[in-house]
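Problem: given the chain below (394 residues), write out its structure.
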Amino acid sequence: MTAKRSERKRQWGAKAFTIVLFMAAGAAGGYLIGYAMSGGAGDPLGTVAWLVAAVALLIVACILQVLVHEAGHLVLGLATGYRFRSFRVGSLMLVEQDGRLRLKRLSIQGTGGQCLMGPPDLVAGRIPYRLYNLGGVLANTLVSLAAAVLAFALPQRLAAIFFAFLALVGLVFALTNGLPLTVGGVNNDGKNLRSAGESPDALRAFWTILKVGEAQADDLRVKDMPAAWFAVPADAERLRNPLIASVAVLACNRLLDEGRIAESADAIRDLLKRKTGMLGLHRSLLKVDLAYCELMGESRAEEAERVLDADARKLMKAMSSFPSVLRTRYAQALLANCDEEAARRIREEFDRAAARYPYPSEIEGERELMDAADVRFRERAEHGTDVTEEGAQR
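Solution.
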């Protein structure tokens, strides 16, 4: 009970800190925009022009600091033996495949960017992980300090405001990524760093997550990766570590990729019931997968609807082009609504998203699951039953 209270206090403290930090940053940003607007010297047109310029400079500063952050991970990752695999800012992603850089699109809720790298081999169960995780924070801090100096040194108003924005945004990025926090359902660098250092199992889980990402970039399906990577500890207490819980999520994904739908559903239900350190993002994605499993089994459509709670539906809306989201929507159209026309439109949407998705192997697996939904739909049509009737017969 004491541990639970302590964890709740940390969570509330993190939320309070984040709110105060963004309020302070907003106040500072508002001051800078007001200072910029004063450049209009009372002329309404001039004031509007300065306001537009200030907002544009703030947006540019944010984008630049995202680039700086991910570049920090890249540089310190390379320096400690990691291998470049992908670099994402917003939804634009450069991924290395077959020795070439390819431009793809990927949007993940709660993240503004991501630099994924292949980890060095484990040596006595360990890899260097601190500098790679801290790379973005260090880069934001250094650029922020340099920008602050330039903001005070430059006489030109707009230039000074731009570097002040750059310093302010960099400071916010450094703090919100360096201090262990969960933001938008995703753990930040500081939280990952702390989690990886909790135990040898946690560090191995960190390595496994990166190895899976690297294997996907090499066009390997999850089902074809070494089974040892996806071992889930029997000790439920260890699943409280977010990294170990993430490996358990990957184990559920692997069962689904193997076509073991009933087993995947059981594993997902079991994991969702446990008290774990699972990310909110992963929890919602698992519910999307479970809804698919329910539709493919003998459960009523109402059960699939119940699984998709408010958080899962919010994710499905925010990540509407994500392959697993489209796959489940496709199954809903066919198996819950018996709407072949809607299913056809979703399939076309899936094909468009697949063309720019970075991992072809994942697309291959999702197509197989959609094809399985087609087969299930035809079977039900042949037997003259719909989802509701099947549920009533159970």
